Amino acid sequence: MTTFDANGISLERVREYVWEIPQRDGMRAPARVLASEALLEEIADDKTLEQITNTTHLPGITKHAICMPDGHQGYGFPVGGVGALDAQNGCISPGAVGYDINCGVRMMRTNLTYDELQGREEELVDSLFTNIPSGLGGGGVVEAGVDTVDEILARGVDWALENGHAVEDDLLHCEDEGMREGADPSKVSQKAKDRGKNQIGSLGSGNHFLEVQRVTDVFDDEVGEAFGLEEEQIVVLIHCGSRGLGHQTCNDYLRKIEQQHQGLLNKLPDKELAAAPAGSQLAEDYYGAMNAAINFAWVNRQLIMHRTRQVFERVFGRSWEEMDMHLLYDVAHNIAKKEMHTVGDEKRELYVHRKGATRAFPAGHPEVPMAYRDVGQPVIIPGSMGSGSYVLRGGENSMDLTFGSTAHGAGRLMSRTQAKKEYWGGDVKQQLQDRNQIYVKAQSGATVAEEAPGVYKDVDEVVRVSDELGIGDTVARTFPVCNIKG
After folding, report:
1. pLDDT digits over 87-118, tens only?
2. Which residues bind Mn(2+) 1 (predicted)?
3. Is residue 384 annotated as involved in ligand binding?
4. Which residue among 57, 64, 353, 408 is the active-site one?
5. Fewest Cβ atoms closer than 10 Å to its Cβ: which of 73, 100, 354, 431?
6. Is 334 known as a binding-site position?
7. Burial degree of 307 (CB within 10 A; 0-12, 13-18, 19+)
């Protein structure tokens, strides 16, 4: 197949797994979809192709807009989308970052084996669920006043280190060492801070989770060793973001853009792509606020990890240090960052928007932590709670093809509303336990139904395409043991 048509949009096959929507009708660049034919059929089922086409109307879009293999319809900008916008002559778009600023994942490894855990699954899942706040609304590991929230927004995980919720090694294994430069707490509204102050160290709801997993396969022994992964090892995967603070921050700036930059907004095919022109005061304010929310999310995941260490200590009767519960890596997948990229023959500073896409820098890149500089940045791609997840490393082709990015998960096939019609939470939970020995605990059956394995694309196929393209190389596969959700 050399062409693909869906919903009035035509794609041309550039090469295997690369499909292009040619530039036309006000597009400032082409759009590309990275997918196998099977995944492309699923991507075409909703408005993803329309949305990735719309993103090419954003001022300053560079080379092409990109939809990852896990792409699906989002708010304006598709989930699984990457857009690099010129930082001097382009714009920055809160809609292209998303409401959950720095939604991301972190994986903590342990020296426990699956054999050591078996028989204690129910005790562990119950203790994790009891001790790690989840669900809508308030409740966190710590509750903070305004001054503390400001410190967290400004300093990120360095605040957690100073207050006994982290060790130095945690910072060294986190994107940006857990602190974004340019964070400006004064640009985050009081309403956002009030929403966040009682949610520090909480999973929230929706697709956010904490999952205890076992490593089933290591495909690259050298990189696996560098990442500290081996078969039958127990690891912990945490997926959440900036909670109400990030949501409110996005909402605040979308409203401000509507008021102050209506001219630009009127030129865009979708108002949900609302953007502030680069160099404008509002663009600078949003960037400062977004970076602050990024710091908040890193602290949120750090505190959940800290509490998880304490739970494991109680369940297994050993210190977390004895169990070697160290952070493998933490990486964001809802973010816009100023990065230098080679475009043509020149280096350019770009706002690289990754919405439901993971940074995937290759070996040797100066922003890869020293621990992984020789092998490449770890990339963590969760599947559903009934399938495997993957650890990849940034691939050699990522900088050229995707501005150093790859997929962020399996990607949804079905809306939450449809999922609740198709599945019954109690049945899903029981089947996972009976058939796969996966123990799930959630605030409601509806949450389990919304996140049923059948709701998601085939994560194996998503990762295969990433590997084949050389944007994210497969290192290891994991499989769920225990899962808690909000």
Report:
1. 999 999 999 999 999 999 999 999 999 999 99
2. 100, 208
3. yes
4. 408
5. 431
6. yes
7. buried
